Amino acid sequence: MLTIEPIGGLCNRLRAIDSAVALGHEIGLPVHVLWQINERVGSSFSDLFQMPEEIYRLTEFTSGFLKLRQIKICRALDVRRPRSYCLQKDVKELLDLGFDFCQFNHRNRLHFKTFNRFFRPYGIKRLFRPIPAIQQAIDNRCADFENCVGVHIRRTDHRPSIKYSPTSMFVDRMKKELRDTDCNMFFVATDDESEEELLKRTFGDRIITHSKRSRSRNNLQAIEDAVTDLFCLSRTSRIIGSAFSSFTQMAAEIEGIPMEYAAGELPDASEFGWHDKPNLAGVTKRRDSLSVSTDP
C-alpha cells in the first residue's frame, strides 16, 4: 500500500496525490489517500471531486483524529526502516538529491506526507473530476468565454506571490494582451476582493468572475468556489498568474494551456520548497461516501 497524506492548500494536495498515483502505478502499489479537513482546506475530498478509480481507498478525517492516526501509522510501518515513512522534510531532501522514487519498488508499505510533486504527473484532468454540481457551475461560467485570458492573483498569506507578482504587473500584462492579441475579456480568480474590484474599475466589463460565497479556506463553500475558479481558469486560452502559486500552475496543467507569471526575474524556486515545474504538455492527469479506516 502506498499511503499519501497531502498537506497544504488545495492545489498542493492535488499535485501530491497526482504524484502518488503515478508512483503507485509505476511500482505496483494501491494508493490510499489520507485527506485532512482543517483550516487550510475546510472540506472533504468527496465534497469536491468524484472518487477516482485510481485511488484504492480514501480516508477523510479532522484535526482531532490526527495524532492517534499518526501514532498508529508509524507503528504499522515500523519507522525504523529507513524512508518507509517520509515527512515533508524527507521528501524535500530526496528531491534535492535527485532521488528516483521508483527505488522504493522493493517496499510493500510506503507513506508520504508532503505538498510536493515527487514523481512525474499521472494526469490532473483524468484524476480529479468535479462533482456534478460544481461541474455545472464551471460549465455555466465558461459558456461566456470568448477569446478569454485567465488571470490568477494570489494574495492573503502567500508572501512570494505578493512580493514577486505585484498588481501593477498584472495590469501591464493585461493591457498588453488587449493591445497585441485577440483577447477581449479576462476571467479573474483571486483570494483578495480588493484586487478583483481594482481590476473591474480598470478594465470595466472586460472582467468576468465567479461570484464568491466565502473566501475563508476553512469553509466548504469557499473551497467549492476555489475548485470552480481553478477549472474555469483552465478553460481560458492562456493564463497570467502569480509567481510560486500552485493554483496558477495547476490551472494551466489541467488543459495544457500556456501560462506566464506576472513577474520579473524570479529567484530559485527551491527557496520556497518548489521542485516541480509546470507540466504544460497537455498530459492527461472513485467517489463513495465518507470512509474512515483504521488500518493504514
What's a concise summary of this model?
By secondary structure, the chain is α/β, with parallel strands linked by helices.
Description of the structure:
The model is unreliable at 78-82 and 277-296 (pLDDT under 50). The strands form two sheets. The protein has a five-stranded parallel beta sheet, with helices on both faces. The chain folds into two domains: 2-125; 132-272, Rossmann fold (3-Layer(aba) Sandwich), CATH 3.40.50.11350. The chain has helices at 10-27, 66-77, 88-96, 124-127, 132-142, 159-164, 167-180, 193-203, 220-234, 246-255; strands at 2-6, 31-37, 57-62, 85-86, 110-114, 148-153, 185-190, 207-208, 239-241, 259-261. Helix 1 (10-27) links the parallel strand 1 (2-6) and strand 2. Helices cover 37% and strands 15% of the residues. By secondary structure, the protein is an alpha/beta fold. The protein has ten helices and ten strands.
Give the tags:
single chain; about 300 residues; alpha/beta; Rossmann fold; 2 domains; five-stranded parallel sheet; 10 strands; about 15% strand; globular
